[in-house]
């Protein structure tokens, strides 16, 4: 996978040379290149922002600088698009990735939430290009223009809070995406049973390691029983109960036909009705 990142602080991404992503780069599984947006400016101050049209506080990132940069990185010629060709933000951000097309991603706090499902989908792409916003954000015509040019453009928020810039958000998305690439994890089984993962996704059960007793706290006895069936059931019940308490929206999204008898019993004991297509709180 080829990853380009555009930022006014490209040094920020030196951290990506560490840990598993660093190893994946060394193995040639992924190449990451951070570019300085200011390299595409022509004025003496290398300015990338201007005042908002219509007034208001702060500065907005200029479309001309971004387009020169993105045209270069995407190998596109500049174009004038017809006003009615502009594709608005309403484009689904969860569509399937076509690996032969680059995906241009802008972090944006007012975009749909980035989820594990998005990370899974994007892990199939061959080329991802991230654009980090700063100030009040980037001119809204930038994603519109590249969508109209036929580029797969996606905008995602990483949560309901506002950061100073897109760099942290890009690091979050990059880590979530790349760890799902085949060959990235030493033990691929470790990404199969995780929170938010798979068809009937739940929060993961609690994890423990040795010693069995630590500072007066014991791990649950069943985990020491050696009975794999009982251990699996205990973990599954814990995942159901934890998810029911913290993320009832995930329980409401479960497909009841995929639940076994014991799942149904546990959910009913937690106050869920499981006779319909999806669980409903009683
Ligand atoms: N004026 C914007 C608003 O109120 O929605 C906030 C702009 S923020 C200060 C600057 C940049 O940081 C954004 O363009 C985006 O790239 C990034 N950013 C901030 N919070 C984010 C979040 N929760 N998710 C993704 N990107 C975020």
From TrEMBL:
Specifically methylates guanosine-37 in various tRNAs. It is found in: Cytoplasm. It catalyses: guanosine(37) in tRNA + S-adenosyl-L-methionine = N(1)-methylguanosine(37) in tRNA + S-adenosyl-L-homocysteine + H(+). GO terms for biological process: tRNA N1-guanine methylation. The keyword Lyase does not apply. S-adenosyl-L-methionine binds at residues 133, 158-163. It holds the Pfam family tRNA_m1G_MT. Keywords: Cytoplasm, Methyltransferase, S-adenosyl-L-methionine, Transferase, tRNA processing. It comes from the Bacteria. This is tRNA (guanine-N(1)-)-methyltransferase. The keyword GTP-binding does not apply. InterPro entries: Alpha/beta_knot_MTases, tRNA_m1G_MeTrfase_C_sf, tRNA_m1G_MeTrfase_TrmD, tRNA_m1G_MTases_N, tRNA_MeTrfase_TRMD/TRM10. GO terms for molecular function: tRNA (guanine(37)-N1)-methyltransferase activity. Its main location: cytoplasm. Residues 1-252 form the tRNA methyltransferase TRMD/TRM10-type domain. GO terms for cellular component: cytosol. Its EC number is 2.1.1.228. Belongs to the RNA methyltransferase TrmD family. The gene is trmD. Homodimer. It comes from Bifidobacterium moukalabense DSM 27321. It is an enzyme of class 2 (transferase).
